[in-house]
Design goal:
heterodimer; A: alpha/beta; 10-stranded mixed beta sheet; 9 helices; 20 strands; B: alpha/beta; Rossmann fold; 6-stranded mixed beta sheet; 4-stranded antiparallel beta sheet; 8 helices; disordered C terminus
């Protein structure tokens, strides 16, 4: 253990170990210790690893950040939260401040039987169950998150329950200079249905580190629309690891908008475990300045008759850098798989860069799979058409750029309030997007 | 309203317009006809401000202003409208969004108040009905997946919403069946007024059966070689362009005769 970060987090673990939820329970303590040991053995990922070839965590290695101490806690006011919320009018709102649940900023009116709250409470109440976040996927960062997580979302929707208005979950970084490790467990029982909107936002522009762990289980016929809006601060390192298990005929729709952070990384793994399972993944990433945004997806077709569709779009400006690595694995038994993947990129500057890599690994013989990646610039014919209608050049550019990105939201069109909020979030982060406000209908 | 004087232009070093002279007054409709490659569409594009043309000489004055000095968007706001020969598809931008942005850009420029959402909607719906289009198209992406006829109707819809002072119609009749041609012509005729001028760029006389021009000009190899009244178009219909250009390939073909 020669590296700075490993030693640092080992010390942090020692400091906070006894404060973690459910601490003192032998099993739980052991689970955390083992996770830490795995992390210490591996260290932070480096660019020598294929999976991290294009994304360097050297900044984190050099300057790891501590977990927040109790005395440093400053809770933002409700007004501050509502001002930055993507859906301020949401009926159900769960707020986490610097990695911990903030009941005073949260409210919900969910049906009886729905559990929506702090994972720390569940772990503290039933420590024998351990952390409901196990994953066969060993990874140093996931292990670090498991060891140090203080809290996260605990969401369980019972069988047959449909929740009609979206649940907003905000992960707010209020005090700069800290690490947070939110870990969330989401379970939709048979036939349950909900839209979950996760917003990750910083109220400052100083350094911060978030390692986010999310485990989703969808029982048969469940339907989850999972929106993630990453609008972190300019100096935040935001690394997220999400694993989703999808049962028979269940549907998982993911919409990820990566609009902030200095380094953003999304690892999203979907396992289509039984016949008729479906996954729809849409994503947009907008690196500009010197931002670095990386998306690694893995869709694993385990069973026959499953379908998946992925569409990721990048808009890269200034010295922004994007990485897309989309892996589709079709296992031997997964006959009649239908898997599509596309990645389209718009390069707006000579200094911007995208590394895109689709990976298909097919072990079944009766399957339909397609993938494609494109990199292009704004189409002059489209720009002239708009200008010939009286729209000035800057607005025409912004409009075409916006239209390119906004297509990843099309699956949300029927949820009007959410759709228009996300469109707004998108264009306020677009190069030149501010001119579009005048044009909105 | 429009004075084109000795206009010459090149594309990639190749001369396309070799001295165009044309004056268009308010209230007039001019048809510019000519064989393929004569420079008709280039003329329309240059007037609308498309990039990629090198103006090598001459001048274009529009309402007393140097048109060639103005960016495309300023020309549009000042009332120049080009109905495209090949309307561009813009995925992700809805027709209604574009229409509203365009109408309000023009209104702001004229010192008028922007239309509010309700007024705009009732106006656009009325025009959509007039153009015998489906209201649903308003919410579709601009021209995306439209048939050739739908695209041309959409161009005319934009035109009647924008109420241009100078309308340039580039081969608006191409690719239209007879019903669509009638609707498009109805739209164009509805805009005829003493304050407005139009230039119809067309290969065939067919459109002129529905929109009667005041003047007809024949463009060949970058020059206007003959001008006349509507009867000139009929003469061309009978004899083809070879009669004027002396080129055998411009003789009437089966495709031209109706």
């Amino acid at each position: 253990m020669s590296d700075v970060a490993s030693q640092f987090y080992a010390d942090e673990f020692e400091r906070v170990e006894s404060l973690l939820p459910g601490a003192g329970n032998i099993q739980l303590d052991d689970q955390r210790k083992k996770a830490l040991e795995y992390f210490l053995a591996q260290g932070l990922p480096t660019t020598r690893q294929e999976n991290w070839k294009y994304t360097s965590l050297a900044a984190l290695e050099k300057k790891p950040l501590p977990l927040k101490r109790e005395q440093d806690h400053v809770e933002p006011s409700l007004a501050e939260i509502l001002e930055v919320a993507v859906l301020p009018q949401a009926e159900h709102r769960l707020v986490f401040v610097d990695g911990r649940f903030a009941p005073a900023l949260s409210k919900h009116a969910l049906a009886v039987g729905v559990r929506a709250g702090a994972l720390s409470s569940r772990v503290a109440d039933r420590p024998d169950e351990g952390l409901p976040l196990s994953s066969p996927n060993h990874c140093a960062l996931v292990s670090l998150g498991l060891a140090l997580s203080e809290d996260g979302l605990d969401l369980t929707i019972p069988a047959g329950v449909s929740i009609h208005s979206p649940i907003l979950v905000m992960f707010v970084s209020a005090s700069a200079g800290h690490s947070v490790f939110p870990a969330s467990a989401i379970h939709l029982a048979e036939g349950a249905r909900v839209t979950l909107v996760e917003q990750h936002i910083a109220l400052h522009n100083e350094s911060a580190f978030a390692q986010i762990l999310t485990r989703v289980t969808l029982d048969q016929d469940a339907d989850l629309t999972h929106v993630k809006l990453q609008v972190e601060g300019e100096r935040t390192i935001h690394l997220a690891d999400t694993e989703v298990d999808v049962a028979a005929r269940a549907q998982y729709h993911s919409v990820v908008l990566a609009l902030g952070a200095s380094i953003g990384r999304e690892d999203l793994r979907i396992n289509l475990n039984a016949s008729g399972a479906h996954a729809d993944l849409d994503g947009a990433y907008l690196p500009r300045k010197r931002m670095h945004l990386d998306h690694h997806t893995t869709v694993r077709h385990v069973s026959p008759n499953c379908t998946s569709r992925q569409s990721y779009r990048g808009i890269l400006d200034e010295a922004g850098r994007g990485v897309f690595n989309g892996r589709v694995v079709v296992e031997k038994d997964a006959q009649h798989t239908d898997a599509q993947q596309s990645n389209a990129n718009l390069l707006l500057s000579e200094n911007a860069e995208i590394d895109t890599k689709p990976q298909l690994e097919i072990f079944a013989d009766d399957v339909k799979c397609s993938h494609g990646a494109t990199v292009g610039q704004l189409d002059p014919a489209e720009l002239f058409y708009l200008r010939s209608r009286g729209i000035d050049e800057a607005a025409a550019r912004a409009l075409v750029t916006f239209a390119f990105a906004a297509r990843v939201l099309s699956s949300l069109e029927s949820q009007e309030a959410l759709y228009s909020s996300l469109r707004k979030a998108l264009f306020t982060h677009l190069p030149g997007g501010s001119v579009l406000e005048d044009l909105s209908l | 309203m429009l004075h084109i004087k000795d206009l010459t232009a090149e594309v990639d070093g190749k001369p396309i317009l070799k001295g165009i002279n044309l004056t268009v007054n308010a209230g007039e409709i001019h048809a510019v006809m000519g064989p393929n490659g004569s420079g008709k569409s280039t003329l329309a594009s240059i007037l609308a401000g498309r990039d990629g043309y090198e103006i090598t000489g001459g001048s274009v004055m529009y309402q007393g202003k140097d048109l060639l000095d103005m960016p495309a968007e300023d020309r549009a706001r000042d009332g120049v409208f080009l109905a495209f020969q090949y309307p561009v598809e813009i995925p992700g931008v809805s027709n209604i969004y574009l229409l509203k942005a365009a109408v309000n850009a023009r209104r702001r420029h004229r010192g008028m108040q922007e239309l509010d959402a309700m007024d705009f909607l009732s106006l656009v719906k009325e025009k959509v009905r007039f153009m015998e289009m489906d209201e649903k198209m308003l919410y579709r992406a601009v021209n995306e997946g439209f048939s050739g006829g739908e695209k041309k109707r959409n161009e005319i819809l934009q035109m009647i919403m924008l109420e241009p002072t100078l309308a340039l119609l580039d081969e608006t009749d191409s690719g239209l069946d007879i019903d669509a041609l009638k609707v498009v012509s109805k739209g164009v005729n509805s805009l005829r007024s003493p304050e407005r001028a139009m230039i119809l760029v067309t290969h065939y006389q067919r459109l002129l059966d529905y929109i009667t021009p005041d003047y007809v000009h024949v463009l060949s190899a970058g020059r206007i070689i003959k001008s006349g009244g509507p009867e000139l178009a009929l003469e061309l219909e009978r004899q083809g362009y070879a009669w004027l250009t002396g080129d055998q390939k411009d003789a009437p073909s089966k495709g031209v005769a109706q």
